């Protein structure tokens, strides 16, 4: 076959990118077209996403690809972080900027919603961990605070669906992103409309969902003319970025163990069906949906968010430290402190270095304001969190693999990778860094019939990228650390 180019629009909660994937029938080569920041905007109403600026940056990235590879570009697909959405009216107009999931308008909504639907029932119906920012709680907040907006809205589109609509003119809701909402029936493409009604969410907002790896339409003619492309397919990939990231993991065997490492850490195992038990509910594990009918049985952990938010504060104070330098300082640091990465005091934009210092003081631990010491505290705490989760999975799954695939931007952090190998006793295979864009393109290849399965896509990943392996070398020293960490997170 002739070489073809697939465009992956990949938006994380901190940055975005448009990546061109050049496929020759066996290998995939990635080439950046545009990278840009993505930060929430604090308006008088609260925290929102600047969705129009994101779309402008996406168009710039597609235009750059058109200029260089125009005659080879065959399709484009969008993936983003989960749960957030836009509401459109019957004429297709967006009713306000999408809310940012960390906005405080959902405060107290879990407890309020649980009066209508007990927490155990909510988990049992959807298989999704109860988190304050899940779409169900965001829509419950809309129903209580902005009922007129819901009455005017014709349809909900999750952020990648909204961007896909602006590219193609077609309104679809993709299944993997919908599964993050806590409104789909577990392991199903069917909305739980009874649940929605109990919470006060209008059923007409929830249109039928579309499977990943589906052609949606063509690039809108006016947009194609503006950008300089012709007859390009728009595809629904695994529109939830974690679905694409896990699809891009170079696993050789069925049901791999994965850690998608970015703003969020999502650690779990790809399965054929959901697991919904009292134990999984108590431990806060989710059953998100993936490509080819798979389930991602995983736990959300506040991953590199803590370090990103620290760096944002340090940058505002004039610091010039890059992430690589912070990790270098953390390598040599001896700071002994530990924090619970999921403590509520770290969940929203804040003065994160101060929040971490306050946590250490409150728990009677030494405090240092040096960035390298704070970075080490964060990274060691994450590695211990991973250890706890892996041990939970071992208790439930005697056949747990002995290799952990770490994908995404966090896979570049050699210190955290080695800490994770040591803490868990697992072999860590790190990469690809751009697993999400890679998985996005795998879905496009499936949509166009170039490949027939997820397994075939992962073989392409193994053929195309190099990976770094970290073997456990110091597991015993983490036993005492785990006992101290468990005491922290249980208080």
From TrEMBL:
It comes from Terrimicrobium sacchariphilum. This is Rhamnulokinase. One of its GO terms (molecular function) is ATP binding. Residues 6-247 form the Carbohydrate kinase FGGY N-terminal domain. Residues 258-447 form the Carbohydrate kinase FGGY C-terminal domain. SUPFAM superfamilies: Actin-like ATPase domain. Keywords: ATP-binding, Kinase, Nucleotide-binding, Rhamnose metabolism, Transferase. One of its GO terms (biological process) is rhamnose catabolic process. The keyword ATP-binding applies. Belongs to the FGGY kinase family. The lineage of its organism: Bacteria, Pseudomonadati, Verrucomicrobiota, Terrimicrobiia, Terrimicrobiales. Signal peptide: none annotated.
